[in-house]
Design a protein that fits this description.
Helices cover 80% and strands 0% of the residues. The mean pLDDT is 93.
């Protein structure tokens, strides 16, 4: 575990979604897909907020793990897992949207839309992994199953355009 929660894997995954959405918005704009550009901009804002929420939740979980708030460990780990699940869902949304844009993108920018799809799929995978290793998450936990479903959606979108 990293000492700086903002440099941890969950926040990095959320920032990756935000960057994928930023690339996607640019591709959508140059391709004349204003609706997709607006959706991508909204995804960028959503992911940026999730990065901040993840950093805060992870910092609180680390504090509990280190013994400063041990009584609250389960609650804080649950909160961290919840945010990670939302990151996986945002990543899947970004990957699916990027695949849609890639199919109709200006040919000179299609590769960037495909890159956004791959970046978002990677972020979903990271977030789902972090949900899986959370101390409060069991193999049949709904949060983990939802995060893995998000990975499946993101992977299918990626595979559709590669």
């Amino acid at each position: 575990m990293t000492a700086d929660a903002s440099a941890a894997g969950g926040a990095a995954a959320a920032r990756t979604v935000a960057e994928a959405a930023r690339v996607l918005a640019a591709v959508a704009r140059v391709s004349g897909a204003r609706g997709h550009a607006a959706q991508a901009a909204a995804l960028e804002r959503r992911a940026t907020g999730l990065a901040e929420r993840n950093s805060a939740a992870f910092a609180r979980a680390l504090e509990a793990l280190r013994g400063d708030a041990g009584r609250e460990l389960r609650t804080r780990m649950d909160a961290a897992a919840l945010v990670l699940g939302k990151i996986a869902e945002a990543a899947a949304d970004a990957s699916v949207l990027a695949a849609e844009v890639a199919r109709s993108a200006d040919p000179d920018h299609r590769a960037d839309a495909v890159a956004a799809t791959v970046l978002a799929e990677a972020a979903a995978t990271v977030a789902a992994y972090l949900v899986a290793v959370n101390l409060t998450v069991a193999a049949d936990d709904e949060r983990l199953l939802a995060a893995r479903a998000a990975v499946d959606d993101a992977r299918a979108a990626r595979d559709a355009v590669l």
